[in-house]
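User: I'm writing a short methods note and want a consistent example. For methylmalonate-semialdehyde dehydrogenase (CoA acylating), I'll paste the sequence; you return only the structure tokens, no commentary, since I'll be parsing the reply automatically.
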Amino acid sequence: MVTIEHWIGGEFTAGSGNRRGPVFNPATGRQQHDVVLATDADVDAAVTAARIAFETWGQASLSKRTKTLFNFRELVNARVKELAGIISDEHGKVLSDAAGEVQRGLEVIEFACGIPQLLKGDYSDQASTGVDVFSFREPLGVCAGITPFNFPAMVPMWMHPVAIACGNTFVLKPSERDPSASNYVAELWKEAGLPDGVFNVLHGDKAAVDGLLQHPDVAAVSFVGSTPIARYIHDEASKRGKRVQALGGAKNHAIILPDADLEFAAGHLTAAAFGSAGERCMAISAAVAVGGAGDALLDLVNRKAGEVVVGNGRDPSSEMGPVVTAAAKQRIEGLIDSGERAGAKVTVDGRGLRVPGFEEGFFVGPTVIDQVEPSMEVYTEEIFGPVLSVVRTDTVDAAIDLINRNPYGNGTAIFTSSGEAARRFQRGVRVGMIGINVPIPVPMAYYSFGGWKDSLFGDKHIHGPEGVSFYTRGKVVTSRWPHVSHAYDASLHFPTS
Ligand code: NAD
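Assistant:
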């Protein structure tokens, strides 16, 4: 068993405390490592390393920063397989899915490689006679990232490549359930030539998070995780005058109209509900069948759900791995029970699944629940497991209304062959990311990612142009260089031209 340590100032350290957290392999159900949990002194050490590094990195030229980003991009690209293995062993997701997550993170690094273009300011020549006005953006200082277990490489990469490209330094507090990917990435940053202290990894739980929120040298906090914690992070960081973006949980609906290609829709719904065991913030967890689409759709989804191959993430034939912890398995199965008790029909049942050779693993099989009503707990709760609830409505407008009444607003999708219905949907839903015949509409890295309502606290979405804006602040310079021979009259009037 290895003890996973912090990465502070360019080296590993066990820190000053002796609290440890267990890290499991979800497929075997056995603890494989433990991870150090930061004390206040460790938080201070990480933030101080980042503050000192900011003195030089904050002044590094655009070309130096860009070169480092390109080096980092090459290294991550070359090590996708290694990173995917690390992710699969601690998270449980299958290798191909883990590699896909690294690929999506890589796209953010590639976006950040364009930082010289992204940071170009505006220039207005001769705004007034002899006066020019221009703008530019500066980094904030030490930025913190607090991330969830479900994308241990990609979600941190939504943050640190952009923050560092903008000239900030970074302290990442990854999930304590799958912490190793962050340490591996830290070593790649160092190999890429990033100066020590610019990127730090601080492991821990609530104590580490609270330490970062309270530290006066942390200028900005990016958070991704569940809604109650997102709200807490937003409130605590704002209260202390820090810039904050806090992305929360989700309950993503897909509407299926009778005019959709139902075979196509069912295939994509199955993938979107059960991929990564449903532990994606953009997973589809509610299928809203409109009009006559319900029965035919349900038959197709049931068949496809039953065909999903569940197994160890390392096995190339597996399509879906275990969920992350024994507690997650228990919670998910409990929510399926509650749906059944409330009168919904479990048409494909993943409870109690045992995978041969991995009998102690945290497996829940794909589950489909029909006749779910919006009042049921199985509908109101974010299940974050491989469970698809089927809800029925009579019209598109009723389906849009259902989505809008839900407190979350992360992602949503429509399956239809009607442009009119799709347009009505895209304009009518109060949700941040919308798919039209695309079930998981995660924006490309050069757009920004973020939901509405209880899925995001703060006003900036993550990565893309809003990420650059979040990690920098603007200056506008009004300048005049009068010729020595000219006498300009200063006036007490407000200058207008
Ligand atoms: P979580 O909220 O439990 O944990 C996220 C982070 O917060 C972790 O680093 C954890 O250590 C820390 N944390 C946990 N409890 C805390 C507390 N009481 N005080 C301070 N910090 C605390 O989330 P999770 O279970 O790791 O991840 C799953 C959740 O993340 C789901 O709700 C999912 O929808 C959400 N998520 C959202 C997005 C998005 O883009 N909106 C993306 C991925 C995941």
